[in-house]
Design a protein that fits this description.
This is FecR family protein. It comes from Fluviicoccus keumensis. By secondary structure, the chain is mainly β. The chain has a single domain, classed as Jelly Rolls, CATH 2.60.120.1440. It contains two helices and 17 strands. It has a 17-stranded mixed sheet that branches. Strand 16 and strand 17 form a beta hairpin.
């Protein structure tokens, strides 16, 4: 895997362009009220699809939607949660129930996503892992034969999908990475392909600061 500072890393080049344009415009990109049942994109470039249809800046996002990015990243908020989706990613959002508009989690089908979450339990699923969270910051990506998960701060319950009985609690104040293999093995993974600057940007979209800036 390319090092996050390598000029050959396409995710990182796109991320730098995205962050640069976001900082040039300022953090005040909030379009809806945070309490809206439906969210909106804050910024994206290129083609983004929601439920198979080409999205615009005004496209509303509901829990239950499927979001797919093309050659550029996209950010959006939904309730008190904010997300940055990497290029070439596909994410299926999951609602709490048929009668609820609240987000209960999502499934990462391809690519990578960084998310900051408000209070309340949620479940995140990758090709090899299931992550239970209760308000935290998490970055994760699907790889050809494994998943990478970084708990940026907070606490999660981590399971390999092939070994659901082997629960691994993880807590962090500032980044704890794990690689979850298809065989169920969970190994340390360091911190790669995401930044504190991105976490600060996402938390600002929902009116918060990351814990590492709270002191």
């Amino acid at each position: 895997m390319e090092h996050p500072t390598s000029p050959a890393c396409p995710h990182c080049l796109s991320r730098r362009r995205f962050i640069g344009s976001g900082m040039a415009l300022g953090i005040g990109l909030l379009l809806p009220a945070v309490s809206d049942a439906a969210g909106r994109f804050q910024e994206f470039g290129g083609i983004v699809r929601v439920d198979g249809r080409k999205a615009s800046a005004g496209t509303r996002i509901h829990a239950g939607a499927r979001i797919e990015t093309g050659a550029a990243p996209a950010s959006f908020i939904l309730g008190d949660n904010a997300f940055l989706i990497r290029p070439g990613s596909s994410v299926q959002l999951v609602r709490q129930s048929k009668h609820s508009a609240a987000l209960s989690g999502f499934r990462l089908i391809t690519g990578a996503i960084l998310g900051v979450f408000g209070p309340g339990p949620k479940k995140l699923v990758t090709s090899t892992a299931t992550i239970g969270i209760r308000g935290t910051g998490v970055y994760f990506e699907n790889r050809p034969e494994s998943s990478y998960v970084c708990l940026c701060y907070g606490a999660i319950d981590l399971n390999a999908n092939t070994r659901p009985e082997a629960l691994q609690p993880v807590s962090a104040t500032h980044h704890e990475g794990r690689v979850i293999g298809g065989n169920g093995e969970i190994a340390p993974g360091g911190m790669v392909n995401h930044t504190d600057e991105e976490l600060v940007m996402l938390e600002a979209l929902v009116g918060r600061k990351p814990p590492f800036l709270a002191a």
